[in-house]
Design brief:
Chains A, B: This is L-serine ammonia-lyase. Chains A, B: It holds the Pfam family PALP. Chains A, B: Its EC number is 4.3.1.17. Chains A, B: One of its GO terms (molecular function) is L-serine ammonia-lyase activity. 2 copies of one chain form a homodimer. Chain A is built from 13 helices and 10 strands. In chain A, the strands form 2 sheets. The first copy, chain A, has a 6-stranded mixed sheet with strand order 1-2-10-7-8-9, with helices on both faces. A 4-stranded parallel sheet of chain A has the order 5-4-3-6, sandwiched between helices. In chain A, strand 4, helix 5 and strand 5 form a beta-alpha-beta unit. The first copy, chain A, is globular and about 55 Å long. Chains A and B meet through helix 11 of A and helix 11 of B.
Chain lengths: 330, 330
């Protein structure tokens, strides 16, 4: 593993102090009696839906952009590609440092996310809905305009930013046994695992993914078994449809997270999202239905000595113009 | 004012200790950067949507039923009438003390609330949708079965139970200048005002009501100016459609709350409810859109020296089977 690519403990702490310096909130940890009763464990919901821009992505985006501006104060602007939340977070972060921003989005991105990006004054470039097309366009823009690229996950500062969740969590709930994390490219779980496992080597970090991800096979073999070119999964959760994890994040995951992966069918994810609205009174997006769905429907797969479990609620940017996912099922 | 009808400070503290003894949660107070920016104040959301049974009503119902059982351990059962949330709360509380329960409901009560009541094993009796019909039926049942009546608001123990919100709030945010409270019969605001004004006579307690409530006129005159027989208001918010306040609660309100009332059109209430889903990531019900709508759309009516404002989020039992209120508008 190339240590330069992975943030150190110090870099994650510096990221936390970056975020604190601009009043990024420490998100609350909520508990719920029904959830504890149903699962027979103590469940701690780390509510990144209450984070700035409505998802954890602001942590990585802000840390990366603040760091980039420190090193090169005359940066011309920023460009990124995103399934939505990362684009919103980068647009917001760029507006804070008063730099132009371009977000490359797949042409099937939900309207609520496009509106949020525009609200921060960023320019939007739409592209075909395939894993590689947006990256190519992003590279072209970066070259032509001399803009700084803010990757969605494969970047040391992005991973350090997401790791600040664990900095807060380990202080909020010191006796955690496990953390359940939705995984797409792997930036979130890498940041959390890098920090949490160094503070407490006994803690277990579990990935929660849609069907078809092949993550467990890859982790068990310690190899990228995914077919190329990269594909999108057949899932309702657009935020987690990358089949492959990142070139930086996958080795971190191999070193620090459990080989056992929670694979969540779409129906379970949607039911868990509804459960959050109905019983937890939280607006969450489908990606959060992966970790919540794992604990609701597969908690019996966890060792009985795992009592205190954090479930990462990644964000709450669900489209409220249209019917909700379970309403559309009718 | 008949002091026997109003809970004392001690009775509200005893209610708080009743609730603590059975692990009723202290609900969190949340803040949100967008909300603070929009209103130019520090807004503290007291999240009763996270309370047991999804609304503040569990406080009053549990305190009343625990007190009643202490005095008469052989009570045969409980009966109540309700717009929904109080019925759920009484059904839940009765199930905890293992007594049968009957809830009299108007025949237009939303399905989600009926389902919740049934889930706690209570019997449901439907009646015509007028303010007096359910009270008459409730009295008949109480007489016939020798059941204890748990009124929705006009009862010392119910008011003391709701007052426990203020016990928590004054500890959570010691330097509050004002509290904004949705008002129907007045049990919630009476409990909060009785406690908060005795602890800090300078704090201001404001009522937030639907159009047609006539509450400001009544408070200014100190008289019940409402037409008889009691009427329902024309509002989408079924939980707050009583025009009249209670015989016990109205005198408390005259003594302790501000004469200035926030009157909230339905459109503002629905927009505020949507704002909560979209920006606060909270599932709230329309009644909470009254207090949130007041601070979002009428904050300029508050004195400029009022900085720290608690907004009571009464509950989150909105019907998620159907389209949400703003979706139905199309």
């Amino acid at each position: 593993m190339n240590e330069k690519l992975n943030p150190s403990l110090a870099e994650i702490h510096i990221a936390a102090s970056h975020l604190r310096s601009i009043s990024v909130p420490i998100t609350p940890v909520l508990t719920n009696a029904i959830l504890n009763k149903l699962t027979g464990r103590n469940i701690y919901l780390k509510c990144e839906n209450f984070q700035l821009t409505g998802s954890f992505k602001s942590r990585g985006a802000l840390n990366t952009i603040l760091n980039a501006m420190k090193i090169e104060p005359n940066l011309k602007g920023f460009v990124t590609y995103s399934s939505g939340n990362h684009g919103i977070a980068v647009a917001h972060a760029a507006s804070l440092v008063q730099r132009p921003c371009i977000v490359v989005l797949c042409n099937d991105t939900p309207k609520n996310k496009i509106d949020a990006i525009k609200q921060y004054g960023a320019e939007i470039v739409l592209c075909e809905s395939t894993p590689l097309s947006h990256i190519a366009i992003c590279l072209d823009i970066a070259k032509e305009r001399e803009y700084y690229i803010v990757p969605a996950s494969d970047h040391c500062d992005v991973i350090a930013g997401q790791g600040t969740i664990a900095v807060e969590l380990m202080e909020q709930i010191p006796d955690l046994d496990a953390i359940l994390v939705p995984v797409s490219d792997g930036g979130l779980i890498s940041g959390i695992a890098l920090y949490a496992k160094r503070i407490n080597p006994n803690i277990r970090i579990y990935a929660c993914v849609p069907e078809g991800k092949m993550l467990e096979e890859c982790l068990v073999e310690g190899k990228r078994l995914w077919p190329d070119p990269p594909q999108f999964l057949e899932t309702e959760c657009k935020a987690c449809r990358s089949q492959q994890c990142g070139m930086i994040t996958f080795p971190i995951m191999c070193s620090f997270i459990e080989k056992q992966v929670f694979t969540i069918p779409d129906k379970v994810m949607i039911d868990a999202t509804r459960f959050a609205f109905e019983h937890l009174k939280l607006v969450i997006e489908l990606a959060s239905g992966l970790s919540l769905g794992a604990i609701l429907s597969q908690h019996n797969k966890l060792d009985t000595n795992i009592h205190n479990i954090a479930v990462i609620i990644t964000g709450g940017n669900i489209d409220l113009n249209d019917r909700l996912p379970w309403q559309q099922e009718k």
